[in-house]
Amino acid sequence: MREANWERNFRSAARYARKYKHLLVPASYVDSDGVRLGLWISNLRAARKNRPDSYQVTPAHIKKLNSIGMVWDARDAKWGTAYQQAKAYYKAHGNLHAAANYKSDETGFCLGDWLRRMREWDTTHDPKLTPSAAQCWIRSGWSGANKRKKPPVFSGGFSDADYS
Fold first, then answer.
1. Residues of 29-56 as b/e, b for ≥16 C-beta within 10 angstroms?
2. Cα 87–119–70 angle (5° rounding)?
3. How far apart are CA 145 and CA 138, in angstroms?
4. So what's the pLDDT on residue 49?
5. Residue 103 — φ and ψ, nearest 5°?
């Protein structure tokens, strides 16, 4: 029964991945068949991180999930998506001075607020920002210490490898 439920959830995840081209499923998402996919995906991430011997994340399950693009670190992946939005905005506008309520795409992502929070991170160094994202932000050259004197450097090394 447990494996049958896992397979049902996996099929739902595969449908979601085909439709949306990613597996950054909102935690509250429930599919049309009633599968609480967002919760299931969140539980898988937690199980892999905290309980790697869980039946939910066997090596075979992990392989299947990876084959449909499972995102194991959602926070880092979401940051990378936001970073790409910032790159696109900079390319279009020549700056990163988006209004606080600026929405950058059809998903309603609020790039202006994200940029504000990143500028705040420069002074607070909030540990919620993953080390990889922090390094990418620092290497971009757009930091509070920069005081907007120099344009960001959206190229080279870490940023392009992990957030392209």
1. bebeeebbbbebbbbbbebbeeeeeeeb
2. 55
3. 10
4. 85
5. -105, 125
Residue 153, C-beta contacts closer than 8 angstroms, at least 6 positions apart? 139, 140, 141
Do the beta carbons of residue 163 and residue 137 sit within 8 Å?
Answer: no
User: Please, what's the b/e burial string for 60-90 (b: 16 or more CB within 10 A of its CB; e: otherwise)?
Assistant: ebbebbeeeebbbeeebbebbbbbebbbebb
User: What are 72's two structure tokens?
Assistant: 């194991």
Interatomic CA distance for residues 73 and 46, integer angstroms: 10
Mean pLDDT for 101-108 is 76
Rounded CA-CA distance 6/56 in Å is: 7
Model pLDDT for residues 77-104, shown as the tens digit of each residue:
788 888 888 888 888 888 788 888 888 7
pLDDT tens readout for residues 47-79: 888 887 887 888 999 999 999 999 888 877 788
Residue 110 or 131, more confident:
110
